[in-house]
Input
Amino acid sequence: MQREVMIERQLKRRGIHDERVLAAMAKVPRAEFVSPEVREQAYEDRPLTIACGQTISQPYIVAYMLQAAELHPEGRVLEIGTGSGYQTALLAEIVREVISIERHVELSKSAEQRLTYLGYINVQLVIGDGTLGYLPRAPYDAILVSAAAPEAPRALLEQLALGGRMVLPIGNRDLQDLVLVRKEERGMSQIRLEGCAFVPLIGAAGFPE
Ligand code: SAM
Output
């Protein structure tokens, strides 16, 4: 019920129309990805705190990024910033293969437990610096970065397939623009989507710790 209200009020009314994204948001229980203390707030229109001082993003921004990435069922997607694993589960509902990188071991391990418990078998979790991407499974049809970067990391641009899309927040540590990058034969194109505020991407091609 709360999930249905979230979909109607927070997503459809604000322009989320991709049927695969809406179906995934209707299916994945966000409440399973937050701690028991904030479970009652799981379907509210805001980010929530998770372990390691990180956040599970606002449902609308997650849906917006998934829609902007123009995901195809046969696609292979790289996600940077596993966090709780919520967006990873949504991706796993939509595409064939998901690789998700997280720098905090604790977050990756608990995301793994949740994703296994919920039965996702098309997900590979990697612990490390996502600004370097994950070469063994490259190229990727889409890359979603759920932490704020000073600029698009070069390794991620290189690991994007031709025709691929990358959605990421670019800006400073406090405020960013959500940007859609496309890799085309004639080069990269970049368009600004909307303003946002993510936790920083920490790493070699991100911000210092
Ligand atoms: N999408 C996640 C979810 O559904 O719960 C929320 C992601 S949270 C906003 C951003 C995550 O990016 C944090 O868990 C943070 O530890 C992670 N992160 C930051 N820098 C990173 C890096 N260089 N590589 C991998 N993960 C990173």
